[in-house]
Structures are given as C-alpha cells and as structure tokens.
Sequence to fold (366 residues):
Amino acid sequence: MRFICDRNSLSEAISNVSRAVPQKSTIQALEGIKVKVSPNTVELTGYNLEMGIRTTITANTADSSEFVVNARLFSEFIRKMPGDEVTVEKDDNNIISISSAAAECSFSGIAADEYPDLPVLDNQRGFTVNATTLRSMINMTSYAASTNESKPILTGELFDIEGGKFNLVAIDGFRLAIRCELTESSEDYHFVVPKKALQEVSTLIRDDDKNCNICVNERHIIFEINNVFVISRLLEGAFHNYKLSIPASYKTEVIVSKKDFITSLERCSLIIDDKNKSPIRCEVDNGVIKISCRTSIGRVNDAISGDISGEPVTIGFNNKLILEALRAAEGDKIRIRFNGAMKVIEILPLEGESYIFLIMPIQLRS
Fold:
C-alpha cells in the first residue's frame, strides 16, 4: 500500500482526530489512529469508546488498505518531515514507512481488525446550526457543567430545541448557564451531550466555518464540521427542569461595567485560597456597589458605580463561581438581578435574554 498527499493537510487531519485518542487504554489499538486508504482518499479515525473523531483527505493512490499507527509517532514524523508532500507506505508486515524529500523513517503498525468500530446511527434525525454560533453557545455555558461523576447527566449539556428556540443548558447544583438562539429546526429535540465532546467540537470550529450539521438518535450524536465528524454517546437520565429555576421576578437590578466588576472581584480573589476561604460581600444601594472580603491573608474593600433600581440588598457569593460566569458573559455592560439575600443571583446581557446565568448565594455572617 502506498499513498502520496499534502503534508500540511495530513498533519492537520492527524491533529484533529488525535483529540479522541486516549493516552492509555486497555485496548492497545485505541492508542493509535486508524488509517483507511481508498482510491484517491485517506480516512483517519481516533476513538476512546465514548467519543470518536473521523476525517478524510484527498491523496494520490489507487490502493485500498486499513491499518493502525501510533498517534504520537505518526503526528511527530509527519509534522517534522521536510517538503510539501509526504509518501506513506505499508508492507505486508505492517511496517509503516514515511518519506519526504531526502528524509525517511519507519515504525511498526497494528492490524486494523484490532480497532473497535465506531457507532453507526440508525433511525437518526438531523438539523443544522451556524458553526460559530454553536461555538459561542458552548464556550458560554460549558463552565457550568458538573465535574461530579455521581450525577453523570449533569456532566453534560442539554440541547433543548422546541418551538423554533434553541437553549443550550449546563448546571452543576450551584450555578446554571443558559445560552439561547433562534433555530429554523421544524422538529423538537431534547438530549444531553458530554461536556468533553462539546469542547472538542468548539475547538474544531474555525472562524470561516459556516455550518455544523448534527445527526442524532436515541444513543449517539454526530457533529459534522468542514469534513470532520465528531461522534459521541449521549448521556442517559433525567436532566434538571431548568426552567423552574429561572426567577419570575426580581427586587433589585444593577447595570454595571463587566470589566470593572471582574477587576474588583479579582482583587478580592488575591486573598482567597483553599486554606483561606471566605465569601465576597456585596452591598448594593444608592448607585454604588460595595465589594469587600476578609481572610487571614488580608482584607479588601472596594466600590464601583452602577445603575441601580429597586431595593437595597446585601448578599454573599463564591468568588470563583461569579468570576467564571462574568468571564463567559458577552457585552461591555451586564444586568445583575437580585431577589433578596438568599435567592439566586441572575446575570443577563444589557438587552434581551440571549444568555441567563444563575448563581447560588452564600449566607453571610452578621
């Protein structure tokens, strides 16, 4: 077997599928990349039994063959080869040879029959999302997905598509993130995708990618972005009824500079660590937001201006939870709503509700 292809195209394809290759696996073949050669085409696959990534590139070949190569060696050899084209050959003993210009190297491959098959989606349905919009939705919500495996369903994000509205939702019990967009999908969808798979999808989307095609059935989902396919299992179980968590009203609303609020909170965070924990105290009244914190390391007192309407409120919150939400928020200014000292804090854009972030407060000592 022999094929010739553009070195940069092959290197990029290897980099993309390697995102699904585990560093260690009980199945040795999964630590490699499956290469399937067909006339004029080379298909590459990475798979970790939960998520797979597959892509194809064009190549000069009339052969047909399948084999598995060590992901690290294949990536490094191709990346460091001279010249614009590379030649890849495999002999009957599964020895892989790579040559370009005057450079040549070889290493052992693995038989393709040791590589597990990727899931095949039967009875699938599908819809299309603008690729960069999907990337924005993932990046603005993934921070709120749980890392606690005791509730696996919350380690993913809910795709809630109904009545022409697409909500992407993440929750971990202390915070909730919702990113909203309109959709042209005529069907309703409700399924949960693991956070890891969504982060890989986000990474694979480039600024010039137009659409992401999504196919889904009861157990698996496929994202297709610019000839790269990400296949993932879906998470099973009942997702939290997030709509019940969204406050129906509020008593206090603040419009504030996101940058000023983040900078103030970052100053407080300098005196908070794992050994010195303390909630941040926030007092909202008379056009001023007073922010303070005290630990054994030191103390911080700060104040920033804001457009405040409604009742005065004093509330406490975790510095990391509020900072992650603020950093995910879009816009120079944001709206923050309060409903008393022990009700959820709500963060929204200056106009509309393209995102809604909720954070549980912390009870302050008197």
Observations:
- The first strand starts at residue 2 and ends at 6.
- The mean pLDDT is 94.
- The chain has six helices and 26 strands.
